């Protein structure tokens, strides 16, 4: 076992902190090369004091100076800022492993920098892959980067597949992927009750503790839609071969069915440190700090079909993937704008899919032939989604 040198993009977030919690348990296995945050200067400074990275990056170009001031007594830590700083630490030869845990489209360029530099890339930032699908996977193939899924469902699928055939389901004898979903906090809400849910209610997930954006995505089922697209790219599959199963206990993290009728499931407590530790140490297994699973307390597993009428975001994501080209990037951008508006109290929960659908209907889909095209469509879709929000009656 040689020591791994980590860059953690989005170190102050839910995934970033869980990653550092696993790292803390294994000082002989991991050293931290770089840490990044968007705006939380004090939190990042505190993490730098504990983990002593060689570089610390504030994504906000204006915040680098404030971090440098807080770390003035630690001159060995180089402070960078902006997207260039993020891309630099993601591709630096001193780091061999990059945890891509920035939330949203902001993670695309640094994650891609890590891919192009041929790193072991631990992918939590699903939005980057959803936006750029084929180009992202082509970049992985070209550089020889080792892309390992951290999203709990995809990590579960990965664990249930032969490691050398994850991109060739037919050769592996895989017939179907069963993508599990908790159903979110509003699984049993009526369509009427959904109209008036608050941001805090949406962020109070029954099983998982996560950042606010992904919590809202879980509540609308857009998270499952993004994960459907993510699974298609990671495992070279089609939406027809992936079936969403609402499983409110969140113990089975996903399943893979084989030609002989075998269905393999990966289970565990809903704690992201399990998939994170799996990716960090793969193919070895290490302690993640996760308590042992007690099935006697859980008692039973339930399954139901998702309701696409109350939760249209899952349908919209599947349609955007089938549409292809820049449609998934438009879907993602419109969703980010709508979720931010909902969290700010400027949009009601049930208008999130309305804004996404209108944006998808307005923006012309183009072939996703370059990252520049994708970023341009992302910007166009954001603008359009904001206009659509302004047009709604107050
Ligand atoms: P979070 O909001 O808790 O943390 C996000 C991190 O990204 C923070 O460190 C923040 O400083 C940084 N960040 C935010 N905006 C940025 C910007 N514009 N530029 C650079 N950095 C920025 O989010 P999270 O819940 O940790 O989720 C991170 C990613 O992991 C998301 O893509 C999410 O979908 C995915 N994911 C999260 C979980 C989970 O349990 N939290 C599970 C599966 C997948
Ligand atoms: Mg997930």
From TrEMBL:
Its EC number is 1.1.1.267. GO terms for biological process: isopentenyl diphosphate biosynthetic process, methylerythritol 4-phosphate pathway involved in terpenoid biosynthetic process. It comes from the Bacteria. Keywords: Isomerase, Isoprene biosynthesis, Magnesium, Manganese, Metal-binding, NADP, Oxidoreductase. 1-deoxy-D-xylulose 5-phosphate binds at residues 126, 152-153, 182, 205, 218, 223-224, 227. Residues 6-133 form the 1-deoxy-D-xylulose 5-phosphate reductoisomerase N-terminal domain. Its cofactor is Mg(2+); Mn(2+). InterPro entries: DXP_reductoisomerase, DXP_reductoisomerase_C, DXP_reductoisomerase_N, DXPR_C, DXPR_C_sf, NAD(P)-bd_dom_sf. Residues 267-383 form the DXP reductoisomerase C-terminal domain. Residues 147-235 form the 1-deoxy-D-xylulose 5-phosphate reductoisomerase C-terminal domain. Mn(2+) binds at residues 151, 153, 227. Pathway: Isoprenoid biosynthesis; isopentenyl diphosphate biosynthesis via DXP pathway; isopentenyl diphosphate from 1-deoxy-D-xylulose 5-phosphate: step 1/6. NADPH binds at residues 12-15, 38, 125, 127, 211. It catalyses: 2-C-methyl-D-erythritol 4-phosphate + NADP(+) = 1-deoxy-D-xylulose 5-phosphate + NADPH + H(+). Gene3D superfamilies: 1.10.1740.10, NAD(P)-binding Rossmann-like Domain. One of its GO terms (molecular function) is NADPH binding. PANTHER family: 1-DEOXY-D-XYLULOSE 5-PHOSPHATE REDUCTOISOMERASE, 1-DEOXY-D-XYLULOSE 5-PHOSPHATE REDUCTOISOMERASE, CHLOROPLASTIC. Catalyzes the NADPH-dependent rearrangement and reduction of 1-deoxy-D-xylulose-5-phosphate (DXP) to 2-C-methyl-D-erythritol 4-phosphate (MEP). NCBIfam families: Dxr, PRK05447.1-1, PRK12464.1. Belongs to the DXR family. This is 1-deoxy-D-xylulose 5-phosphate reductoisomerase. It comes from Marinobacter salinexigens.
């Amino acid at each position: 076992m040689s020591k791994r040198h980590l860059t953690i993009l989005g170190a102050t977030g839910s995934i970033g902190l869980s990653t550092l919690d696993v790292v803390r348990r294994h000082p002989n296995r991991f050293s931290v090369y770089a840490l990044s945050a968007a705006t939380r200067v004090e939190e990042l400074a505190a993490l730098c004091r504990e983990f002593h990275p060689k570089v610390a990056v504030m994504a906000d170009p204006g915040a680098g100076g404030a971090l440098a001031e807080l770390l003035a007594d630690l001159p060995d830590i180089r402070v960078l800022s902006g997207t260039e700083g993020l891309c630099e630490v993601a591709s630096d030869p001193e780091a061999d492993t990059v945890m891509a845990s920035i939330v949203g489209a902001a993670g695309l360029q640094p994650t891609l920098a890590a891919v192009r530099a041929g790193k072991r890339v631990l992918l939590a930032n699903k939005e980057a892959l959803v936006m750029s699908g084929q180009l992202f996977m082509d970049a992985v193939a070209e550089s020889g980067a080792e892309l390992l899924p951290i999203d709990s469902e995809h990590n579960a699928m990965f664990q249930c597949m032969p490691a050398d055939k994850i991109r060739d389901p037919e050769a592996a004898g895989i017939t179907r992927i069963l993508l599990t979903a908790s159903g979110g906090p509003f699984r049993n809400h009526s369509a009427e009750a959904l109209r008036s849910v608050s941001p805090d209610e949406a962020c109070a997930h029954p099983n998982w503790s996560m950042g606010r954006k992904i919590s809202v995505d879980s509540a609308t089922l857009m998270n499952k839609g993004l994960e459907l697209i993510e699974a298609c790219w990671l495992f070279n599959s089609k939406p027809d071969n992936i079936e969403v199963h609402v499983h409110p206990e969140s113990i089975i993290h996903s399943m893979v069915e084989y030609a002989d009728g075998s269905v393999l499931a990966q289970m565990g407590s809903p704690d992201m440190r399990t998939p994170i530790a799996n990716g960090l140490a793969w193919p070895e297994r290490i302690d993640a700090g996760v308590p042992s699973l007690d099935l006697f307390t859980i008692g039973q597993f339930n399954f139901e079909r998702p309701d696409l009428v109350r939760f249209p975001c899952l349908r919209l994501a599947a349609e955007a993937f089938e549409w292809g080209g820049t449609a998934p990037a438009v879907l993602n951008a419109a969703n980010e704008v709508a979720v931010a508006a909902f969290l700010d109290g400027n949009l009601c929960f049930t208008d999130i899919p309305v804004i996404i659908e209108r944006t998808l209907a307005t923006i012309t889909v183009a072939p996703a032939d370059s990252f520049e095209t994708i970023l341009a469509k992302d910007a166009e879709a954001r603008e359009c989604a904001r206009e659509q929000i302004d047009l709604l009656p107050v």
